[in-house]
Amino acid sequence: MAGQSRKWMILVATIWIQAFTGTNFDFSAYSSVLKSVLGISQVQLNYLAVASDMGKVFGWSSGLALMYLPLSVVLFISAFMGFIGYGLQWLVITQLITLPYFLVFLLCLMAGCSICWFNTVCFVLCIRNFPSNQPLAISLTVSFNGVSAALYTLAAKAINPSSSPLYLILNAIIPLITSFAALIPIVRQPSLDPLPPEAVRRDSVIFLLLNVLAVLTGVYLLLFGSTTTHDASSSRLLFGGAIVLLIFPLCIPGIAYARDWFKRTIHSSFRLDGSGFILVDVDDLELHKELLTREASNHENGLLDPLLCSDNGLVRSKNSSLGQSEGCCETVIGKDQLAMLGQEHSAKDLVRRLDFWLYYVAYFCGGTIGLVFSNNLGQIAQSLGQSSNTTTLVTLYSSFSFFGRLLSAVPDYIRGKLYFARTGWLTIALLPTPVAFILLAMSGSEAALHTGTALVGLSSGFIFAAAVSITSELFGPNNVSVNHNILITNIPIGSLLYGFLAATVYDANASSGLRDVVSDSVVCMGRHCYYLTFVWWGCISILGLASSVMLFLRTKHAYDNFEHKRTTQLY
């Protein structure tokens, strides 16, 4: 029992780490001041945002460090990288020191790298302590990364609502303090024995409760963190309330004693056998592969329906064999389809598969474009004369990104009643993004800006959280760490290209705009500053939506086949 209680304490510590280390999401809260102090153009400011996102390119270094260093040491290396990266930027933005642009770029890169190192530590903690429910643990903790900006906004309001540079010093100090707070449960990690199936199901109920608590936390931050009418004393009380909500999961050991009651009242309404987050459960996957092997053997003996498999063993659609000629779309959809979920792909096999590139484009034109939008929120609000609402917009994006991440697990909780391929849910999640950009291009009102920000946050949050599961399902769980790192190379690329597009349009329209007398930097005012950017981003997001539709059509048969085998023969 002591070991089981400690693992829940470690989960809470992981939630704390994730909640306070999504520091890249509040970039727009201080970007305008940073631009003014450095006296740089919008394009140069974009390169600083790209530097932060480029930290993901060096995420592999954290895995290498874990091969030779204890987990606690890697945790504090992450904290001190962020402390140095953000701390020196704070000294620059407050004009206590002066650094050349190139060094500020390197500081942004270091700060971005620290976020990836924190994420790696959290993933390892979840995998070690929740081997049977690690997808649920990872999805829950990753969700809290999306709420970081809302927490930092409340913290900044509680100290000095008018100080934008304050975000940088908070970004430097709070993750370090959180690392010290999380150190005790991490150092005292229990040695856990494998859980029986009944215990795994009971843990799933506790994860359901934690998700409900996470939703309440998100609603709290959305309601109280996005308003600008609070004074410093009220903000301190609200920030204290948020901290209480983050500490409350420590009551989990007590909740564990009541889990039998929850099982009778709640658990029976949901299908929570094994992991509810990753569809390809390890045991189910092995049985699924065995069944397909038997079917292939039967096919050799002439016992398998020839309409289900082509000569090379890849899945074919029954409809495609009914006619002699196929259209272009049917050819693309039917060619080289996945035979089953969870089939392992090496990096070499991955880049040769059409499904991967459809997935890459969908992520590149969906989730990544949402991240770039959040980086530009400061300048977007400023150009529309809503600079005072910047922190509200940051909180709004952060909160809805958090809800999107939580929603990514909902399809699996309702899988017993409503089953749909995860690539289909990805397509649905991409729909709000083009709608948001069309709305922003059509109107520059405050309501349109708030609605568009919420829609983009919701969509991108879902994609960020669901991506690991989709990668595991389509290309194999054993190689997911390598394959997913290949996938997220689209983030720094998209950050550079989309940000450069926005900055170029901004600077072109600012040539006759206002000029900051202190830094001599040009400020663009009016809807035209981002109008063309929203139009281009909207068109690009539609391309991502089309790519996700193609991916869904190509993988639907593999998902349906897996679910059919699971429901009829695995249980």
UniProtKB/TrEMBL annotation:
Residues 344-558 form the NFD4 C-terminal domain. Residues 1-21 form the signal peptide. This is Nodulin-like domain-containing protein. The keyword Transmembrane helix applies. Pfam families: NFD4_C, Nodulin-like. It is found in: Membrane. Keywords: Membrane, Signal, Transmembrane, Transmembrane helix. Residues 7-253 form the Nodulin-like domain. The chain crosses the membrane at residues 63-88, 100-130, 136-154, 166-186, 206-225, 237-258, 357-378, 390-407, 419-442, 454-475, 487-508, 529-553. The keyword Aminoacyl-tRNA synthetase does not apply. Its main location: membrane. GO terms for cellular component: membrane. InterPro entries: MFS_trans_sf (IPR036259), NFD4_C (IPR056555), Nodulin-like (IPR010658). It is a multi-pass membrane protein. It comes from the Eukaryota.
